[in-house]
Amino acid sequence: MKRENIIVLDFGGQYKQLIARRVRECHVYCEIHPYSMPVEELKKKEPKGIILTGGPNSVYGEEAVLCDQEIFHLGVPVLGICYGSQLMAQLLGGEVKTAPVSEYGKTEMQLGGSALFREIPEKSTVWMSHTDYIAKVPDGFQITGHTNHCPVAAMENAQAGLYAVQFHPEVLHTVYGKQMLQHFVMDICSCKGDWRMDDFVATSIEEIR
């Protein structure tokens, strides 16, 4: 039986291992790969979902690191986090600009209706770390969260399975972050959560032998 998996594409963010850990805490296997992973290789993995990490660059700058736009058209749910959210917006026809006011630290966010935020209070504390912001969402997307200084703290095109958050749900400072990631993995990606680290270790040892 093929193992369910979530792929994390790394754009240089400091929290990639923590994102993978949160996925594994849902009892779902997770692998981290560089943002440049060819789409054909990604398809062979048959992921149930894809997560795009944060990163230090600007999506509109000369040093921008970009993934293949086809990732958003595989029919697989995608969650963009921080830089990953801005990249999703930029590649799909939205607009990203330098923020008039940078956000760093705990911030109160107003949530809208979304499968990501099911059973989470409408006002929730999240962890922000960004100097750019999504100024215009792509066609087909709706804004599902905002703060006083960030008009697009979360957006989604649920029909296409595309979700994006400007904040970091993987860190403990985002009060309901674990639940948000669990909603993505279990509800949106429809993972069963039947993977166990002990089984993985035992199988890996057997393969080495």
Summarize, please:
The protein is an alpha/beta fold. The protein has five helices and nine strands.
Describe the structure.
This protein has 209 residues and is an alpha/beta fold. It has a single domain (5-208), classed as Rossmann fold (3-Layer(aba) Sandwich), CATH 3.40.50. It is built from 5 helices and 9 strands, in the order E-H-E-H-E-E-H-E-E-E-E-E-H-H. It has helices spanning 16-24, 39-45, 83-91, 177-188, 197-208; strands spanning 5-10, 29-34, 49-52, 78-81, 95-111, 123-136, 142-146, 154-157, 162-165. It has a 9-stranded mixed beta sheet with strand order 2-1-3-4-9-8-7-5-6, with helices on both faces. The model has no long low-confidence stretch (mean pLDDT 90).
Total strand segments: 9
| Rg of Cα set | 16 Å
SSE topology string: EHEHEEHEEEEEHH
Task: State the CATH architecture.
Answer: 3-Layer(aba) Sandwich
CATH class: Alpha Beta
Secondary-structure map:
Blueprint: E1 5-10, H1 16-24, E2 29-34, H2 39-45, E3 49-52, E4 78-81, H3 83-91, E5 95-111, E6 123-136, E7 142-146, E8 154-157, E9 162-165, H4 177-188, H5 197-208
Parallel strand pairs: 1-2, 1-3, 3-4, 4-9
Antiparallel strand pairs: 5-6, 5-7, 7-8, 8-9
